[in-house]
Amino acid sequence: MNTTRRALVLFAHGARDPRWAEPFQRLQSAVKMQSPGLTVALAFLELMSPRLPELLPALIADGIEEITIVPVFLGQGGHVRRDLPLLVDELKTLYPDVSFRIAGAVGEDAQVLQAMATYCLGTLE
User: Fold this and answer.
1) Tens digit of each residue's pLDDT (9 = 90 or more) over 65-112
2) pTM of the model
């Protein structure tokens, strides 16, 4: 049995308007409902809290040993390709006993794109 403590971190850009975070908070709740035993956190690149480095101490204090970061971005732009890996490299230095993995941007997934296409077509009804 695998007893490693894992966390899933939904990583979004951030914005000045606090309402911008609401869909990401709903996503976090939906993921938690589907996997109640999993630690699911939300972090931001900028403009909102917690930023990823601010979130880590609480996860580490809770005994988390593996962190998967899911960029909740539509595409693999500069923030996902450049900024996030640099940030995670810094975190790996600060937390060498923690395993980090960066998933692909959520908008690059075929199922996500199909759900978005279905939604877009549904607006015509």
Assistant:
1) 999 999 998 867 667 778 899 999 999 999 999 999 999 999 899 999
2) 0.89
Ramachandran assignment for 23, one of left (phi > 0), alpha (psi -120 to 50 degrees), beta (any other):
alpha
Strand order in the sheet with 66-71: 39-44, 6-12, 66-71, 99-102
110 vs 94: CA distance, rounded Å: 35
Catalytic sites, residue numbers? 13
Q: How many domains does the chain have?
A: 1
Residue 1 lies in a domain: no
- Any idea what the CATH number is for the domain that residue 83 is in? 3.40.50.1400
Q: Please give the Cα distance from 71 to 102 (Å, whole number).
A: 8
Q: In terms of residue numbers, what domain contains 17?
A: 6-122
Instruction: Return the SS3 of 100.
Output: strand
In angstroms, the CA 55 to CA 87 distance is 13
